[in-house]
């Protein structure tokens, strides 16, 4: 009714307008002049209500965008809370300025762009000009404050002409363009060190003219070698980079020892040669064109040119055949030497042994190789002695595979006092023969019963009647420890139905704190009632004198109530009732919509179940 009244009043005012002229509080501003007339009122006003922010922002979409993004003055929380007309009222005449802004008192921080440094002194119209606005539509407006970008290059010329990043504030601050107070040369690809720190920037970064404007080069400068900027006083007679010998502190500081890549010359330095001072081999000379050039024609394979021949020529002049450059006393593998011409040809692992391992003195000193123990210790400490004599190692070990490999076979083990059966055949040797105390292999007096090697976890838990003399084989076999062959009929509780498939642990091991590794065994005095192991889902529904006997309905072969007789209940099943599923009557939805199983139904009238 009230809505119809509003429409009636609106039509009444329209009729007055067309017959007696416009009813309005005043002329609209020049920006809104096209909205004059009663027929346009609802473009800004809600019918019978004030000016709507929603309608303002439908036209001023750029303001809506700032509000959505919470950017600029209109995106500030305090401004968003206000109605548009609180700051921008109209109907005050064509010349009325709807944007009341005191530029001198305006807090620019409210826009989200804080004025710092030199920006604080700049007149507003220096920045807020159409040339600095990227949006073509906003650029057409006069005296607008909208549309400016926060990036420096939206207002300033790119002095670097796109050769550097557009993020000017990485190097410059707001106080002045020069100097670039934030620039850190150490973060560039060429960190300044030594004398380079004192060099004026323009010495390396030349100021030129590009595209008709002053331009200073900061990129694409060659600095991979010193000769990119400095003259080469050696006239290219020395290979490599200058920094291998010289420092940035001073050209006269020589650091060539250990830094110069001598491998670029015709004499590659290896081993101890790397530790020799340069001027041990090269004559000292201050002339850049002659320094380190006196050995240019030296033969690097002629050791005796520098070193004394301690063998007096008996082994020829090819020293590197036996010696290494790391040390004169460090011999090579002597692969060139044919050991087969001796009384002891090298085989297997012996081929890889360094000569000095056997030849403790001179190579010509005789060695007794009649038995392995002449060189090797008896690891077994006489365990295999017979009549006081230990067998030679070659009976069980080979030169090809070393002492870690044994030639002892399974067939040989079967002839011992402990033939291997079942899982013992697949057990690695070390599992039985490596002592846990000293990690040493042993083969004697290991024991033959299960408990000699295995922990008896049942000790004190199982009666002697079923576990005579702690004999594990009463239940377990060698094939697998988890395989248990125990006749439960020996007990007072025979296993039937599904119970025959259950693991022994399910009934006889009680977990402590939900941790199978921490459990307690129980084999005697176990409760045989169903609820001692199984959850009583019926609670006290079927209890008689406080005791629920599951066997009245269930059997051990399944949970289905095979022995339950519905004829003995208060509602014997007859006719169609005998054909329907149990759930049709016994599953009932509660007030929360959850399904509950009700076994004892209190009402049996037809209307209680049927509509």
Automatic annotation (TrEMBL):
Alphabetized InterPro entries for the sequence: Multihaem_cyt_sf, Multiheme_Cytochr_ET
Superkingdom of the source species: Bacteria
Entry keyword set: Signal
Gene3D superfamilies, per database record: Cytochrome C3 (3.90.10.10)
Signal peptide: none
KW Signal (keyword) present: yes
CDD domains reported in the protein's UniProt record: Cytochrom_C3
Protein name, entry field: Cytochrome c family protein
Lineage: Bacteria, Pseudomonadati, Bacteroidota, Flavobacteriia, Flavobacteriales
């Amino acid at each position: 009714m009230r809505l119809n009244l509003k429409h009636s009043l609106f039509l009444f005012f329209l009729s007055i307008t067309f017959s007696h002229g416009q009813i309005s509080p005043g002329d609209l501003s020049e920006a809104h002049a096209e909205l004059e007339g009663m027929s346009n009122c609802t473009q800004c006003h809600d019918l019978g209500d004030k000016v709507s922010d929603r309608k303002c922002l439908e036209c001023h979409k750029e303001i809506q965008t700032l509000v959505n993004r919470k950017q600029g003055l209109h995106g500030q929380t305090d401004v968003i809370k206000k109605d548009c007309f609180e700051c921008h009222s109209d109907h005050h005449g064509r010349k009325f300025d709807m944007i009341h802004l005191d530029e001198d008192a305006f807090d620019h921080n409210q826009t989200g762009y804080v004025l710092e440094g030199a920006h604080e002194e700049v007149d507003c119209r220096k920045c807020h000009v159409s040339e600095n606005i990227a949006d073509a539509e906003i650029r057409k407006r006069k005296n607008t404050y909208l549309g400016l970008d926060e990036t420096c290059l939206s207002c300033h010329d790119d002095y670097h002409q796109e050769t550097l990043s557009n993020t000017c504030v990485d190097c410059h601050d707001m106080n002045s363009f020069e100097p670039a107070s934030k620039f850190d040369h150490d973060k560039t690809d060429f960190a300044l060190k030594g004398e380079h720190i004192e060099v004026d920037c323009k010495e390396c970064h030349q100021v030129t003219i590009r595209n008709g404007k002053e331009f200073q080069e900061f990129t694409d400068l060659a600095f991979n070698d010193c000769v990119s900027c400095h003259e080469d006083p050696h006239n290219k007679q020395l290979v490599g980079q200058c920094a291998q010998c010289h420092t940035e502190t001073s050209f006269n500081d020589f650091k060539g020892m250990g830094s110069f890549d001598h491998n670029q010359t015709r004499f590659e330095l290896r081993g101890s040669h790397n530790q020799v001072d340069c001027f041990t081999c090269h004559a000292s000379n201050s002339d850049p064109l002659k320094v380190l050039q006196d050995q240019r024609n030296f033969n690097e394979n002629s050791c005796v040119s520098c070193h004394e021949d301690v063998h007096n020529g008996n082994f020829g002049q090819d020293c590197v055949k036996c010696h290494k450059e790391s040390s004169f006393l460090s011999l090579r593998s002597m692969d060139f030497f044919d050991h087969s011409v001796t009384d002891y040809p090298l085989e297997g692992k012996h081929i890889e042994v360094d000569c000095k391992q056997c030849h403790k003195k001179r190579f010509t000193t005789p060695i007794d190789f009649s038995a392995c123990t002449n060189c090797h210790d008896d690891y077994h400490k006489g365990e295999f002695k017979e009549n006081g004599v230990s067998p030679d190692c070659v009976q069980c070990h080979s030169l090809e595979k070393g002492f870690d490999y044994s030639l002892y076979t399974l067939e040989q083990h079967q002839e011992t006092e402990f033939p291997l059966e079942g899982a013992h055949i697949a057990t690695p040797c070390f599992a039985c023969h490596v002592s846990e105390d000293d990690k040493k292999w042993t083969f004697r007096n290991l024991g033959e019963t299960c408990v000699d090697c295995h922990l008896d976890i049942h000790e004190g838990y199982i009666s002697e009647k079923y576990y005579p003399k702690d004999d594990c084989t009463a239940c377990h076999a060698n094939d697998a420890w988890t395989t248990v062959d125990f006749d439960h009929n020996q007990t007072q509780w025979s296993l039937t139905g599904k119970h025959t498939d259950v693991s022994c642990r399910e009934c006889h091991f009680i977990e402590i704190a939900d941790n199978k590794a921490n459990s307690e065994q129980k084999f005697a005095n176990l409760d045989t009632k169903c609820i001692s192991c199984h959850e009583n889902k019926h609670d006290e529904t079927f209890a008689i004198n406080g005791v629920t006997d599951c066997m009245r309905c269930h059997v051990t072969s399944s949970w289905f109530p095979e022995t339950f007789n519905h004829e003995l209940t208060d509602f014997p099943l007859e006719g169609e009732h005998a054909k329907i599923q149990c759930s049709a009557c016994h599953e009932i939805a509660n007030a929360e919509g959850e399904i509950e199983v009700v076994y004892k139904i209190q009402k049996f009238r037809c209307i209680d179940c049927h509509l």
